[in-house]
Specification:
Radius of gyration: 23 Å
Strand order of the largest sheet: 10-9-8-11-12
Largest sheet: 5 strands, mixed
Helix content: 25-40%
Shape: globular
Strand content: 15-25%
Distance between the termini: 39 Å
Number of domains: 2
């Protein structure tokens, strides 16, 4: 069996077998140098901080790359931390003022110390009220922080993909099925995962049709669930494949099950995708065990991701009362989980080798922490401009 050698800094970290192929797999190569975490914005000394650009999206200097000019405009102190003055600046382009906290992930928060504990507990299987009881805050505070963390995680994923020169491994695609609003609306989350690195490349949401059998109590609800637009699964599959194809100049090796939406999208996108289909076999005692093993071996990366996702987030469990209220919130938490899976969680917690999926594709040189992930605020316009 061939193996995949992983090296960081010129030394080999481990050699992992590659399943389902008879050739050595190629990992992604980073387009930029190793992505090292930066010092958090709140921890910067005020005499060493220089604003890299204007934080206001309407300002022409918001997309500035270099030679940005802003003058010092005094400072202020907060009641909870009066010993650390926060510097203020004035943009020379739009003449508006801003502080150093405008570049921190915890901008405009009354209790910024809750941001990192909430992120850690959201991927640890805790519901909002459990987190609120543990941290001594209101459940609505946890809800607002989870929305902010989800938006930050979406931009962090886009930035991670933008730093890659190409994807040199097969990508496994499958939809993760869950519910919102107490099992009234079905939600599918398309997940594209590297087969050998287990790196989550992209996520896309898709609304599923409602179940036909509904109880009398659910039929009597005043607010009936809205039906998803037709073809939403096909649209989500096309969006996620187009995102992955932009980083696959030599074509994409796609592995999936026999969902009809995948075949439709592959025909639309042409011959740049080499599609390998593994149909879901019969798993009864009389089924073909060889086909079952072949399917599980090929789709192991995405199956493992879905198991961890259902285990680590309370609103995705089979029997739960912690349903998400909105699809955007469920997608934001899925993006937060993907960032945790890529950058923080080790590939194996039982083996002594400290490797993350991001280290396998040579994106980072060491495991990150929540402090590193939330070190600075990510601006949507700047991330989109970099991703194009």
């Amino acid at each position: 069996m061939d193996g995949l050698s992983l090296s960081v800094g010129g030394r080999t970290l481990c050699q992992r077998p590659v399943f389902g192929t008879h050739r050595t797999a190629q990992t992604s190569q980073c387009a930029l140098p190793m992505w090292e975490p930066r010092q958090p914005i709140p921890g910067r000394r005020r005499d060493r901080f220089r604003p890299p650009h204007c934080p206001y999206e309407e300002c022409p200097a918001h997309l500035a790359v270099s030679h940005y000019r802003a003058i010092h405009k005094g400072s202020y102190r907060r009641k909870r931390d009066p010993w650390r003055p926060i510097p203020r600046f004035r943009c020379e382009t739009c003449r508006r003022t801003f502080s150093r906290e405008a570049f921190a992930t915890s901008y405009f928060l009354k209790r910024p110390e809750l941001l990192l504990p909430v992120a850690n507990l959201l991927v640890s299987g805790c519901a909002n009220r459990q987190i609120a009881r543990h941290l001594g805050c209101a459940p609505s505070t946890v809800t607002r922080l989870s929305v902010r963390l989800g938006q930050h995680a979406h931009r962090f994923l886009e930035l991670s993909i933008a730093r890659l020169a190409g994807i040199g491994e097969p990508v496994v695609l499958d939809h993760f099925e869950t519910f919102v609003r107490s099992q009234q609306e079905r939600l599918g989350i398309a997940t594209a995962v590297g087969q050998t690195s287990w790196f989550v490349y992209a996520l896309q949401g898709a609304g599923y049709l409602r179940l036909r059998g509904r109880s009398r109590r659910k039929r009597a609800l005043k607010r009936q669930p809205t039906s998803p637009p037709p073809g939403s699964v096909v649209d989500s599959t096309q969006r996620i494949l187009e995102c992955v194809l932009r980083r696959s100049p030599g074509g994409l090796d796609l592995i999936s099950d026999d969902h009809p939406a995948y075949r439709v999208v592959v025909r639309r996108l042409g011959s740049s995708i080499r599609h390998q289909v593994h149909a879901n076999p019969d798993r009864s005692p009389g089924g073909d065990a060889t086909r079952v093993r072949a399917r599980d071996r090929a789709l192991f990366a995405v199956d493992l991701l879905h198991k961890l996702l259902r285990h680590s987030q309370a609103h995705h469990r089979r029997e739960t009362i912690a349903f998400g209220r909105k699809r955007a919130s469920a997608l934001g938490r899925a993006a937060l989980f993907a960032v945790w899976r890529n950058m923080i969680k080790l590939v194996s917690e039982r083996r002594p080798t400290r490797l993350t999926p991001a280290m396998r594709i040579e994106l980072t040189s060491r495991p990150w922490t929540w402090v590193d992930v939330c070190a600075r605020r990510l601006f949507e316009r700047r991330i989109k401009d970099l991703s194009i």
